[in-house]
Amino acid sequence: MQAPGRRDASAEQPTIVLIEDDRHIAELVDLYLRNTGYRVLQAGDAARGLELIDQHHPILVVLDIGLPGGMDGIEACKQIRSTSDVPIVILTARDDEVDRVIGLELGADDYLTKPFSPRELVARVRAVLRRTDRTARPSTQPRTVGGVTVDGLRREVTVNEEVIALTAREFDLLAHFVEHPGIVFSRQQLLDSVWGAGWFGDERTVDVHVRQLRRKLGDELPLTTIWGVGYRCG
Ligand code: CA
Q: How would you class 63 by CB atoms within 10 Å of its CB: exposed for 0-12, middle for 13-18, buried for 19 or more?
């Protein structure tokens, strides 16, 4: 407990919880994030990470998939998502884990495949935070396409007046579609517009997110696959 009137300067910096058991990677990521102005709290296993998230309400979580102690990053991600919409950036050890990671409906906001440069991680973290910063978004009138209504200001999606929970990226992709009804977009165009020009992932990421939107919004979403080209909504 601190004395009244005394303030912990580090507590005023935005906090990121880093859950990574590899000490070398953790220290490197920690250093880069701290130099960027974040306060970093490290956990070497999922249980400790969940504790830190609970206690410190971070603005973002960086989460390794391969973790010791009986709970891996996939299970930890599910647990975090059951109580919180804090942005999550996943670290995966192998490229072939990527499908598993993004296909598992984890609700993560982005992922990086090891080895990655810490500089790239910082760029991703900033991009995710920019996207998920509700106050930074312009206010817009709600738009409806098919049976789906998207309220850009409240970042809320409703179908038949029922609110549908989407990840930040799913929301941004859907918002992009409803702002451009009837326009056919290639996967690369969607990556550029929704993921941003600094994003280096591949096009199947778009397919995974489209699948998620279709699964969550069902027939109310008039989203058409244009074979060999991309997608069109409305
Ligand atoms: Ca690991």
A: buried
